Amino acid sequence: MTPMDPAPLRRDLVRAASLAALAPALPVAAQPAAAPAAAPTLRVNGAVHDLAGLDPRTTLLDWLRERLDLTGAKKGCNEGACGACTVLLDGRRVNACLVLAATLDGRSVTTVEGLARADGTLHPVQQAFIDHDAFQCGYCTPGQVVSAVACITEGHAGSEAEIREWMSGNLCRCAAYPQITAAVQDAAARMARGEA
Amino acid sequence: MQPFTLARPASLEEATRLAAAGAMPLAGGTELLNWMRLGIAAPARLADISRLPGLDAIAPLPDGGLSLGALARLNDVAAHPAVRAGYPVLRQAIHKAASAQLRNLATIGGNLLQKTRCAYFRAEESLPCNRRAPGSGCAALHGLNERHAIFGWTEACVATQPSDPAVALAALDAVVVVAGPAGARRIPLGDLHLLPDAAGAAADTALRAGEIIVAIELPGPAPRSAYLKIRERESYEYALVSAAGALVLDGRTIRRARLALGSVAMKPWRLPAAEAALAGLSLDDTAALRAALEPAFAEARPLSHNGYKVPLARNAALRVIGMIAEGHAP
Ligand SMILES: Cc1cc2nc3c(=O)[nH]c(=O)nc-3n(C[C@H](O)[C@H](O)[C@H](O)COP(=O)(O)OP(=O)(O)OC[C@H]3O[C@@H](n4cnc5c(N)ncnc54)[C@H](O)[C@@H]3O)c2cc1C
Ligand code: SF4
Ligand code: FES
Ligand code: FES
């Protein structure tokens, strides 16, 4: 059961929140509260960033990596085929290499850097990947972890077969698939027990 | 990627106006961005329609059918209760398409407009391909054509249309509703994709300049329907061949059959003669079912490397009937 597209209400709230957080950050452009004309912004791991003046060709992936130095999301194929660039957009997993950053005004992105708690406690999925040795070179891992978080919250981690199917958009050239599947299964159980 | 400007139209009217002036609509972007990277398309302007209000709605129609807004994301179409209950063939085709994260971006309208996966067409270097460069020839005709067409091809192009949802929608007799500079019109799904012509490979679809897909309308539910996708790995791979079937049954007797094959032609390939011959047959009479399907495959024209697709497609058609029968044994 995929979560439904965020209702307009929620999007408006996100936008309002972004604008509120933006206000003190903008030195000169003390824009009056007239929302629509405000500079386009994108929230990443809770912090609001300015999208103004971006080359329209810039993908979300390049923007995260090159502008924000969030290099967790990886560029594997740059064509949607490997899943290494997976991030959450308004809570849903997407391939950041296939999204133009300039189209994301008012939206909210979570990258692998945004999963752990502020005190450094790892997300249950991150912990499960360590416990199950679910990586070798680690290149695909940030994408796997973010995708797994979504896979579990979508309710697609009910069985090994279901996990394999719903995680198939994340390739692992080291073929750590058995360990990844076990980690997702374990993390789903931990999250169901409320250990998140 | 070549430079382009990005417009965000606020209404459908503005979007069609921009499109008529040459802007290319951007929906999920999962095809378009790759085309721009490969040089398959080089639009000077994009019109971001992905957040046009209302165009992602899924709503019942007065006649008992269902309207799928063109911008509905594939995962949202498959998850919708009305699709789940009434159109299993579509739900299955979507779940077997692309990956979970791609389906959160990809729209149902954009999916129908995807281009062939022919490796010559998608190549980074320039190879003979009438679809990329009209008049340059077709490298696949006598080249690596094991994934290419067995129906409806010409020497100008032997490619296939790779969409899974399109095959399900063809079997469901869906109608594509478009808006354009000259107003709205309705295109039966079977008329949306164009077979290659004799001279050049020409256009992919019947859409005219400036036209935007608004919705895809499904007639009444087809609860006895299924999708079979045959591929080289179990998930996240394009079809070698696929089959969509929708049956109306009277006990174990077929009252009405609709069948469409995927990845065998440049459009979803309906089997009208076989569908007629299946009416009145028992689901348990496999020999008769097979005989009803056989003539459709006598018309197949395999290429040098894809003869395997003929029996594969025939068996897929038979098996999808079996899948429906098993799912609904009395
Ligand atoms: C790695 C990978 C694997 C894939 N595997 C599969 C698979 O197994 N099965 C399958 O079926 N598909 C598969 N796909 C294709 C994918 O489903 C399509 O890319 C997607 O559905 C296209 O939709 P979009 O919204 O992203 O289109 P876009 O990329 O936004 O647009 C595609 C084209 O359609 C036009 N367009 C979009 N919406 C409209 C509209 N409403 N009106 C008019 N024009 C419009 C655009 O201008 C563009 O020309 C795969 C893609 C990738 C990258
Ligand atoms: S089959 Fe069509 S797309 Fe492929 S090389 Fe030939 S003309 Fe190009
Ligand atoms: S880099 Fe985005 S899917 Fe491979
Ligand atoms: S751990 Fe090396 S690619 Fe997955």
| Ligands bound to this protein structure | flavin-adenine dinucleotide, iron/sulfur cluster, FE2/S2 (inorganic) cluster
User: Would you tell me the structural class of the helices and strands of chain B?
Assistant: alpha+beta
Query: CA-to-CA gap between the ends of chain A?
Result: 20 Å
Number of strands of chain A: 5
How would you sum up the major sheet of chain A? 5 strands, mixed
The domain count of chain A comes to 2
Estimate what percentage of residues of chain A fall within beta strands: 5-15%
| CATH superfamily label of the domain at 225-326 in chain B | CO dehydrogenase flavoprotein, C-terminal domain
| Percent range of helical residues of chain A | 25-40%
Give the number of helices of chain A. 6
Strand order of the largest sheet of chain B: 4-5-8-6-7
Strand order, largest beta sheet of chain A: 2-1-5-3-4
Low-pLDDT runs of chain B: none
* Element order of chain B: H for helix, E for strand: EHEHEEEHHHHHHEEHEEEEEHHH
Keywords (chain A): Iron, Metal-binding, Oxidoreductase, Signal
Protein name (chain A): (2Fe-2S)-binding protein
Signal peptide (chain A): 1-30
Domain 2Fe-2S ferredoxin-type (chain A): 38-115
Please describe what this structure looks like.
The complex is a heterodimer of chains A (196) and B (330). By secondary structure, chain A is of the alpha+beta class. Chain A has two domains: 74 residues, Ubiquitin-like (UB roll), CATH 3.10.20; 80 residues, DNA polymerase, domain 1 (Orthogonal Bundle). Chain A has six helices and five strands; from the N terminus they run αββαβββαααα. Chain A has a five-stranded mixed sheet, covered by helices on one side. The two termini of chain A are 20 Å apart. The N terminus of chain A is likely disordered. Chain B is α+β, with helices and mostly antiparallel strands and 330 residues long. Chain B has a domain of 102 residues: Enolase-like, domain 1 (2-Layer Sandwich), CATH 3.30.390. The longest helix of chain B has 19 residues. The radius of gyration of chain B is 20 Å and the shape is globular. The termini of chain B are far apart. At the A-B interface, strand 4, helix 4 and helix 5 of A face helix 2, helix 3 and helix 6 of B. The complex binds flavin-adenine dinucleotide, iron/sulfur cluster and FE2/S2 (inorganic) cluster (2 copies). One FE2/S2 (inorganic) cluster (FES) binds next to loops of chain A.
